[in-house]
Amino acid sequence: MEGKTEKKESWLKKYGLFVALAAMAAVYLVPTPADLPTQGHRMIGILVFAVLVWMTEGVSYPVSSFVIITFMAFALGMAPNPAHPDQILGTGPALSLALSGFSSSAWALVAAAMFLSAGMMITGLDKRIALIVMSHIGVKSNRLVIGVIFVGFLLSFFVPSTTARVSCMVPIVIGIIRAFGLSQGSVFAGVLMMAVAQADSLWNVGIKTAAAQNMVAIGFIQQVLGRDISWLEWFIAAAPYAAVMSVILYFILIKTMPPEIKEMPGGRAALDNMLKEMGPVTFPEKKLFVIAILLLFFWVTEKKLHPFDTTTVTIAGIMVMMLPHFGVMSWKEAEPHINWGTISLFGVGISLGTALLKTNAAIWMARHFVSLFGMESMSALAILAILALFLIIIHLGFASATGLAAAMIPIIIAVLQSVKTPGINVLGMTMILQYTICFGFILPVNAPQNMVAYSTGYLTSKDFLKTGIPITIAAYAMILVFSMTYWHWLGYVG
Fold first, then answer.
1. What is the DSSP letter of 199?
2. Rounded to whole angstroms, how far apart are CA atoms 172 and 193?
3. Closest CA to 405 of 437, 443, 432, 383
4. What is the pTM of this model?
């Protein structure tokens, strides 16, 4: 079964680019609808290409960024200028639109967050925090699972990169597994590794700065609605949901993958040895801890005690981290730890969404989506249920939540603006639907954190299916429960 899956994946990767190009060409062969500008028609073709190439991974994400920028520059540049229909727009203005995502504050925040994560890895502070917490949790198997979930929660405050958090936890968990002499076939080894991946996905929901895809959604909310969501506003809305789901996650993991061992003999000693190997707390670790705490303080008190936004504060923190004598790392040290591919994908994703909005492509698709599903006068809860289910299903084909958010959030906003239901809170419902974009529980390819955990050899695709399906069902059900109760009380769902 797994061999067939691998063949299928390799076929998709091999021919994904050609499939995406053929689909884009097919869109362009369809006559431009009378109610859609030429630029909008061409953007839909580029969107189809982007979605398919990201789903199939026909080319790497960084390369796809350059391809999409090129297509946007030429396809939009050779289309009529909306201000002067008798003239073409030109590749210069079109290229400016294709690069617009790289000038957004959301993109700057993601780039800055990468450097903060790099600082954590260089100093080893993230590893030390994780080991200290794990050593105090206890060595019973159920407590170790709780410890992994709790560390995922804790690190999401200080390490604004899911992949970085998982990359920090995986060596620690492998160390525990090896210290206990567990084989790759061990159920307990598998459940620990699964807890690493799934807990981090959940806390991408709970904390605004935990994941790049959240910044995508916030960037479009700022652009279309002229509103911002502070760190604290996001936390108040999302953290209770992530906390409830963390408890549910624990019980699902224990039920679907019951550990064959109840207690780890010599477990505490193994964790203590790992801490001893790290040596005493270094001065750079202390400096970074102070910077991280100050950043967290400024994030939490945004719009309350000061006028400084999250992005500006984070950039200032990175400046301090890299200053000679005061900082904790140099540019040369940080550079290898920065995922430049993610940064380029993020910028292009924002540009793609911006172009979909500015060319009216998103609005045109939204109108037809609303009409197709008869959503014009549905209740807010019914609309939310349909759109959330749609995003969960389409995520099965995506390896990048950032790519999914870039492609879908502009359309989601346009859909919510198109319905006639009174009392629709576009900002609140967009934020909730962004939570579902963070769901990537079912397949190893649904999220980078899943792939990192899967690559250790302690998990199989069946393990992800066995745990991921009930987690996804529970997460979707809790979206509806919270929408009827807590988020309704907050005014996010009418």
1. H
2. 10
3. 437
4. 0.85
Q: How far is CA 162 from the centre of its chain?
A: 8
Are 399 and 54 a contacting pair, CB within 8 Å? Answer: yes
What are phi and psi for residue 48, nearest 5 degrees? -60, -45
pLDDT band at 23 (very low <50, low <70, confident <90, very high): very high
Helix axes 212-225, 105-123, angle to 10 degrees: 160
| Residue owning tokens 């991408």 | 204
Domain boundaries, the chain: 1-98, 105-337
Q: Which residue has the higher pLDDT, 423 or 408?
A: 408
pLDDT digits (tens, 9 = 90+) for 318-333: 999 999 988 899 999 9
User: Does residue 28 surpass a pLDDT of 90?
Assistant: yes
Residue 258: Cβ within 10 Å count: 12
| Helices marked H in 99-124 | 105-123
The rounded distance, in Å, linking the Cα atoms of 170 and 186 is 16
Report d(CA 253, CA 201) in Å as an integer.
14
CA distances from 154 to 77, 287, 317, 440 (A): 47, 19, 19, 20
Angle 267-278/125-137 helices, nearest 10 degrees?
160
**Token reading at 33:** 């609808």
> Alpha helix locations (H) across 305-400?
310-322, 331-334, 340-358, 361-372, 380-395
